[in-house]
Amino acid sequence: MKIVIPWIWRLRIWVDIHGQDLIEYALLAGFVAVSAGAIMPGVATNVSKIFSKMASCMTKASATS
Q1: Of the four, 4, 6, 24, 33, which is 20 to 30 A from 53 by CA?
Q2: What span, in angstroms and rounded, lies between the C-alpha atoms of 10 and 29?
Q3: What is the Cα–Cα distance from 35 to 32, expressed in whole angstroms?
Q4: What is the pLDDT of residue 34?
């Protein structure tokens, strides 16, 4: 009987669908992360330029006051 019970639990795992949503959300989050990583290199340089301009303006403003 001790051998049969673990086999029954293994068979029930294939029938159980409670974790299906979690797997789908994880796959979707992975897809979004990969997509964002593919898009970001072009955006990163523009964002870097904007922040460097802001930093230089703030430095000039603090030096004059």
Answers
A1: 33
A2: 28
A3: 5
A4: 82
Answer whether residue 31 shows pLDDT above 80. yes
The pLDDT, as a whole number, for residue 7 is 67
Q: With H, G, I as helix, E, B as strand and everything else as coil, classify residue 1.
A: coil
DSSP assignments along the chain, one per residue: -TTHHHHHHHHHHHH--TTHHHHHHHHHHHHHHHHHHHHHHHHHHHHHHHHHHHHHHHHHHHHH-
CA distance 25 to 46: 31
Residue 35: C-alpha distances to residues 25, 27, 46 (Å): 15, 12, 18
Whose structure tokens read 């086999």?
7
* pTM for this prediction: 0.40
